[in-house]
Every structure is written in C-alpha cells, then in structure tokens.
Amino acid sequence: MNRTTTILTAASVAVAGVVAYAFYFDHKRRNDFEFRKQLRKDKKKAEKSAAVQSKEPSPQASSGEITPAQLAEALESVKNSQPNLTTSAEKEGYFMGQVSEGEQLATQGPAFYLAAATAFYRAMQVYPSPMELLAIYDKTVPKPIFELVMALVSLDAKDNFAAYFDHFPPKSVDVGIDDCDIGGQGARKVLVARKDFQPGDLIYKEHAIAATLDTDLQARGTHCTHCLRAIEKGMAIPASASDPFAAVYCSKPCQLKSKTQSHNLLFSLEPLLPIEVLPEPPSAASLEERRKAQTLLIEYLKKRGHGAIVLVARFLGRQVQTETAKQFPQLMTIPEIDYPSPDDPRFGLPEQVEHLRYLELVPPEGERKFLTDILATTLPGLEMFITDERYASVLGKMRYNSFGVCFGGGRDDRPIFDERPEDRERTRTPYGTARQIGSGIYNLSSYLSHSCVPNTRPSFSNGTAELHLIATKAIKKGDQLTVSYVDVTQHEGEDLAECYRRRRREIARGWRFACTCPRCKEDGPVVAAIPPVAPVSAGPNAPALSEAALAAPTTANGVSPLVPETKEAEITAA
Ligand SMILES: C[S@@+](CC[C@H](N)C(=O)[O-])C[C@H]1O[C@@H](n2cnc3c(N)ncnc32)[C@H](O)[C@@H]1O
C-alpha cells in the first residue's frame, strides 16, 4: 500500500464530503488569484525544505521514536486550542500561518519534528479537504514529519471512533446503547431502555436516514417516493414530467426533501451545485450521458428488485447535500437532520453509518458501476471514492440493518424475483419481507437485536416510513430491547417444528446467527425429538445452507453447530 492509499484509509473523512470540498477548492483555485499565489508559494517552500531534508543524513527522530504519550499530548494540544474561526478569510489566514510554522520547525531538526507535524495537523483542521491536503503533504513534507502527521490522523480517528457512543443515542430519547454478548458471539451493541415502559407505550419515533419503495410500487406511482405514504388517486405531485424514475410525492415538503437529499443527484438533470460556482453549464452531450446512466440504473433496479441499492444511493446523496451546503452556506441551506443523531457535530452521517455493522457480501458483478456511472456524469470525481470494497461494505450495512416498512398487516401482492433463496433480500420485519411496501435504514433501530419473543415491535402507524417503536411487554429500565427480524408467528396449518425451522432458517440466511431466545431454547428440544425432515436435493442452484442445517436445534451453549461461521465484519476504527 503506498502512502497516499494509507492516507485514504486512515483518515475517516466523509467520502462524498471530500469531493464536495475538492470542488470548492478547485473553484477557489481557479477564481482567487491571491489564494492561488499563496498556495504556490507554500508548495515551493515545502518542496525546498523537502529537498534540503533529502540531502541531510537520515534524521534521528523518526515517528517511531515519539512515544504514544507524546503523540497523545500533541493531539490533545490541537484539540484544546481550536481557534474559533468563522469567516473563510480567518480560516485561510490561520491555515497559512500554521503551514508556515510547520515548515520553519521542519528545518530546525528532528527535535522539532513533532512540533512541525502538530502545526501541519492544526492547518488540516481548517482546510476544507483534509484528504487533499494530506496528499499534498505526502509529496512536500519531509517523510518523518509526514509520518507523524499520519500518526496524529490515526489517533484522532481512533479517539473519535471510541467516543461515538458517548454521544449517541442523544439524551432526548429514552433508550441507550450497551455492549452485550448475545448468543455467545462476543460483544454486540444492543439497545436498552433508559426508563420503564408499559405494553403499548411508544418508546421512540424515528425518521429513516433513507427509505425506498419496492420497485413495483415505485413504478405504479401509488405511494410517495420520499415518505412512502399511499397517495390518493389523482393527488400525486410528480418530480418532473421527464423524470425517468417516475417519482411522485404526497406533498411539496416531501418533493423538496427528496430532490435536495438525493433525487437531484441520482435521477434529475438539474445541476447539483449552485450555478454560481459551476465553471460552465453542462453540455447537451454530458446531460445525455447522465440520463443514459440514470436509465440503466433504473432498469437494473427493476430487474433486481433489491431496495438496498437505492438506500446506498440515497445515503450518498444525503452526504453530498450536507457537505455541499456546508461549503456554500450563503447559497444553500444546511439540511435539517430529522432523525436521532449524536449530540456532537463531530459525528455526522458518514460516522453514523460507519458505526453500523455490516454483512460481508459480494455484490453482483457490475452492480456498483450502475451507481458510479451516475455519479461520474453528475459530480465527476465522486465515483472514484466508491471503490468495490467501499460499495460492498455500505451495501452490506444496508442489507443487514434495514427494516421492512409495512402498513397494517402489510400487502400480499409483492412480486417474487427469480433468485436463489440465499440471495433474496431480507429486511427486518416481524410481518415478513414479502409483505412490505418498501424499506428504510434507521440510525437508532439498527441496534435492535432479535428475539422470537420480542418486547417491542416496529410500527408505521402514521402511514409513512417513520418508525414507531412500541413496547409489547412491560419493560424495566436497563432491559435490552428486542424485535423480531422475521415473522415468528405460528401460522395456521403450521406446526411448532415448522414454525421453529422457518424462523431460524430466515434468521440464519439473513443475519447469520442462531437464535438463543427463551422460545428457541424451549422449542429446540421438542423439535430435536421429531424425526429429521428429508434433505433437499443438491444441484447447481441448491441453497448454500441445507434446510436441515439451518433448522438445527440450539445446543446447550445456545449456538447451532450447523449454522455457518458468522461472516459479519467486525467494525474497526478506520
Ligand atoms: C442488524 S445487526 C444488529 C445490531 C447489532 N446488535 C450491533 O452490534 O450493531 C444484526 C446482528 O446482531 C446480532 N444479533 C441480533 N440479535 C441476536 C440474537 N438474538 N442472538 C445473537 N445475535 C444477535 C447478530 O450478530 C446479527 O447478525
């Protein structure tokens, strides 16, 4: 891995944000003569000092000689002396001052390397595109100092990662997040009650970070593309006459939110950045290319029928919206965060999603390209950040954590797609994914664990994708909150063993664990005493997990020996 790659991996900076920032700086470079002059001057100075450095004998102080305590102290000093800068002129002045201090210190020998790195790191705090600046440092700053800057970046990222759950969930909701070893899998994050609840109580409400209709309903135009509400005949507000996605809305606010959060990025031909900062209007050819890429994605969505792809796209759209608005506060409104989020602005949407567990999966060949082609024709440069690895991990997060949105008992006309059972998309819903009208990804509810005898249920009782978590049992302060990820009701005509096997098979296929809830512990021995079901025949399309294996009763320690090894990826600080 080269150093630039390390920088990209180490810095936990918003993927899309970086690009939005880069746009801003490109614009500034093109238009602000003084700024360009200063940048050139700084670059030359840094190059000169790097050249001097390379002629010197190998420096004594390498990053290895700085102790972790010294590094932590340096980082602390940066955090404790953050200046309160509001205007871009103030930020630029501070940035230039810190870079030039870093350069001066760099020439004073190894004893000053940490101080130099600290000054460079201070400059990074106010630079709109930290990743871009790291790439510049990589080329211009002496290597041992650059390594110290990188060590500060990593330490800061680790500190931030660890501190996340001190700020999430916010105090405004009556639930917390604890570590708990459920089912002997090691520590997992689970939601716990912060007060007592009675059956029927509303524990919290939360809007989705992103939601999507099932593709058949999207095409029918019967539900709002943004909030998923059923729309009365003739009352739908279309996104635009030429919208290839055929988006319709139940209200003007939904239309506005959808367009600004993601629709303009994904399916419109409208410019995404304020026209004041665009170097030139898009050409007819580029618009044609953009439309072509949009149409190809839509065709793919209809064929595949998986909502998680749209959730990835919409999550990305929200990041672009936020980062762009931050850059152009005079021209754009900072979007409202309408779902429970950390009470510290350090943790934005990218950090929130970064903390969700994900299912390790390999997306179908070429799937990522449908999305990146749209990005490349809308905000060129953004597509480079959606690597195969990154796409697979964000898709895995959406697949693992999304909830099925159901109104009433759900529907019974959902199309069945031609795919192997283990490839089928499963959303968490006690009604069964087959009854959903769409799906959503929720910040807080992502941490709910499963039980076949849950103490809560998700409800969409206001007829939109807003999730209401309702207590179904008496809950004491400190109790873990659980929902059913799958339909756990014993259906008419289904015996106990069939119900047991069905729910465990769905859980194993979708979330790769064997349930150890009291009901499974009770039912397991009963099912074990029944003669085994005939194994399914193997063939080229045979499910990867056999029926018998998936339904295997729980062992004494609660873990089914037949459920394949859990593949969910551990979260590590970037
Ligand atoms: C959608 S995530 C839930 C969030 C997760 N608890 C976390 O740590 O972020 C689903 C994963 O949680 C764990 N899980 C949830 N309910 C469980 C249960 N009843 N027994 C064992 N593991 C469970 C499994 O690892 C499962 O794959």
Automatic annotation (TrEMBL):
Transmembrane helix as a keyword of this entry, yes or no, is: yes
Polar residues: which segments have biased composition? Answer: 51-65
Query: Which InterPro entries would you find in this protein's record?
Result: H3K4_H4K5_MeTrfase, MAS20, SET_dom, SET_dom_sf, Tom20_dom_sf
SUPFAM superfamilies named among the record's database cross-references: Mitochondrial import receptor subunit Tom20, SET domain
What domain of life? Answer: Eukaryota
Does this UniProt record's set of keywords contain Ribosomal protein?
A: no
Subcellular location(s) of the protein:
Mitochondrion outer membrane
Question: Residue ranges of region Disordered?
Answer: 44-65
The membrane topology term of the UniProt record is: Single-pass membrane protein
Keywords tagged on the record: Membrane, Mitochondrion, Mitochondrion outer membrane, Transmembrane, Transmembrane helix
Primary residence:
mitochondrion
Q: Where is the SET domain?
A: 171-486
So what family is this one in?
Answer: Belongs to the Tom20 family.
Q: What is this protein called?
A: SET domain-containing protein
Give the originating organism. Hohenbuehelia grisea
**What are the leading ranks of the lineage?**
Eukaryota, Fungi, Dikarya, Basidiomycota, Agaricomycotina
